[in-house]
């Protein structure tokens, strides 16, 4: 997660560019930055964050056909959606994926979306859906050789498994992947999953 100072600078730049050009891409960029700033305040989905992404939701609802831009937008606001909204948008997305399957960017976005859907489901304690989406995310990460994304997906999957069955091997998966994150110095990611583990009362030896 980018720091608040950087997000503020990006938000101001996007706002100025939007005023100069009236290009909706800059408007959406500004809203996403502000939503992330709101989230970074206490690392929870709050009303201010939801307020910032509402215009983006309305934009996506208005689009009959999605292209790569709409897919990326959806991926960027998943955390501020309800599960029902996320699943509704996912159905729209899945109808379009085949049209873009040969674009490397699309494959990356597709994997990211499944990972983020699993994270959203964990946030709402829907562990069955979190496990299902992270299963798909792991498969996509392996297929497209996405190491960072595979680590995130495996951690989500392990958390869901523990909450569903107290699967002992899931603890090992978490410990291994947390060590990988530490080794690669993904400090923000390590903090995110440390908070997640604390939230779900999962203790590991790392």
Automatic annotation (TrEMBL):
<feature type="domain" description="HTH-type transcriptional regulator Rgg C-terminal">
    <location>
        <begin position="18"/>
        <end position="194"/>
    </location>
</feature>
<protein>
    <submittedName>
        <fullName>Transcriptional regulator</fullName>
    </submittedName>
</protein>
<dbReference type="InterPro" id="IPR053163">
    <property type="entry name" value="HTH-type_regulator_Rgg"/>
</dbReference>
<dbReference type="InterPro" id="IPR010057">
    <property type="entry name" value="Transcription_activator_Rgg_C"/>
</dbReference>
<dbReference type="Pfam" id="PF21259">
    <property type="entry name" value="Rgg_C"/>
</dbReference>
